[in-house]
């Protein structure tokens, strides 16, 4: 088993990208990552593409080999990996295993989604294809609906309040406004989205108790990384980032089958595996990207990965512990909430952001000072399939 | 890099499976493979699912984690791999790399497709989603259309005749009739589909010069294998089969961009890599599963992998060299032509059939006597992405 490093990272701004198709976005972000890796004439052995919706949204299959041709990387091996909203994390994991195995030396991993090829309810319907077809989907359950029910249970059991949720949204949109890759750039306030008598207009209910600003937007976007064995990194201009640990766990397909639906077992297990492999404790992590498709998820995940005890995550946000300069800065990228959530891109984008943070490249307004360790959590299904990575800066 | 063995193989009969959904077929074939592996209480670390059409045909995503739950394999890792008609080969390759890396010890790989959830032209349209959206798909190019043009060029350049094609169909349907897992069980004759004045009715044109019996059927089906490190195989009741070599190569997305469209470069390269890794020559192979989605492809691939010189493949079929008892028996399973071609299942089914052949388990009517080495070629796109495996019987 070889140690695997990330030597290149690239992204394109997330948002409405009306002029770009899925293949364009995959190509642009790949070229950014390859350029960042400075491979020169060195070839790429394999390309792993993450997309949840190429077939459903673009009516296109075999996009990975199409991308290899477009990037002039023939005859590199190519596959698409789909794992719901954790497709990106899964593709990075596939790249990790491939390089660790010794079969491939250089692997490009790129995740992308063109969500806005459909409009309105169709985007929500698309994401709902991950639910159980007979036990959930046919009854009209959507992801916002599930998240609403989950939030209600979490509030009742752990005392999370509307204010805690609002503080996550405010924090992440504030950071998104500072991130040139983020979809949402609007600063919001507690007055505007909660306290004001107009807040029900500004911030209408989506799935009670969740409101508009509790949910991530529907975004287009793509992100990419280049992996190679750590011992092949020589004279790199930028510090290589070691994939020091990874974890992955699945849970029941339907939420109703879980003994305690507020217990995200797969998050706990995936993070534990990643941290143990990296020989790190939660308190050793300097920066984290958690999967805040809904504000409640950032709070719940921050507890499940071990940053806070159960029931302490909401208060921690309100106390500023998760903001830049806090004890554990979470989603200083803006997270899914503000950077956006092109589903296939998200798991890769979390890794790209963390690579940039660990290289100290994001600029002083967003940089976690001296960050050397990072944790990412990519949440598929409604916690059905979770992929986590522990990353470490090496060589200095 | 650890040596990886196949310790379990399972399949379900291909064909019209009107009562089974995709998830049912994935589950049944997985259980067959797990049972065959005799794992007992030993857990599975990861499940890789191959499907090209789950999203388009079943409007379902994240099928891999759904399957893990259905098989009670939680919290095993899970991913779906899509690579057009080579999805199955790609999933086996992902399993190979994962076990070789040392991260996972036991991996279940299962490929399946429920093609008959749609009817008529929609199945052909679905497969055409692998073509170039702007250079091919919008002009109505289908895979039978491409194969027809390819056949014409191949006939003109290499002297392949209609009779050669017909002999492939007759051979493979004869073997399919002997294979309990095959979709097509009908024996056909040269008189019936070519010589008789009624042959144009019996065997109508599909895409000139290809006729009905030159094409594989539209089938439902699934197949699965269980992988583990060779050195962990102890007291196995059945001989473990070593994945001695694998190869994969991509080619241009559009056929029109190839200098010589009859030159299937990715087939040549993938087979060469697989054989070299296994330290075998083409003449060392005892049994082969080639991707005969159309009769011409069996002939063309048999030349490109090195069994015959260019232009000799058609004659070789007519001379009986590729039938059971010939110098290199090809598709004694019936191939895609008769076993059927549920696209995500095919690459895995080729491996399952070869495992059974190398274990000498298929029964005397189909068994290649004393077979110890096998080659599989899974052809994605129109040769855009080809995955090949060289398998070897070990321990006796």
Summarize the structure.
With 396 residues, the first copy, chain A, is an alpha/beta fold. Chain A is built from 14 helices and 11 strands.
Overview of this protein structure:
2 copies of one chain form a homodimer. Chain A is an alpha/beta fold. Chain A has a domain of 132 residues: 3-Layer(aba) Sandwich (Peroxisomal Thiolase, Chain A, domain 1), CATH 3.40.47. Helices cover 36% and strands 18% of the residues of chain A. Chain A has 14 helices and 11 strands. In chain A, the strands form 2 sheets. The first copy, chain A, has a 9-stranded mixed β-sheet with strand order 3-2-4-7-1-8-11-10-9, sandwiched between helices. Chain A is globular. Chain A starts with a strand and ends with a strand. The mean pLDDT of chain A is 96. Chains A and B meet through helix 2, helix 3, strand 3, helix 4 and strand 8 of A and helix 2, helix 3, strand 3, helix 4 and strand 8 of B.
Give the topology.
Two copies of one chain form a homodimer.
Chain A: E1 4-11, H1 22-37, E2 46-50, H2 54-58, H3 63-70, E3 77-82, H4 87-101, E4 107-114, H5 121-127, H6 143-158, H7 162-176, H8 190-195, H9 199-202, E5 205-207, E6 210-211, E7 220-229, E8 241-250, H10 265-277, E9 287-289, H11 295-304, H12 313-318, H13 335-339, H14 343-359, E10 373-380, E11 385-393
Parallel strand pairs in A: 2-3, 2-4, 9-10
Antiparallel strand pairs in A: 1-7, 1-8, 4-7, 5-6, 8-11, 10-11
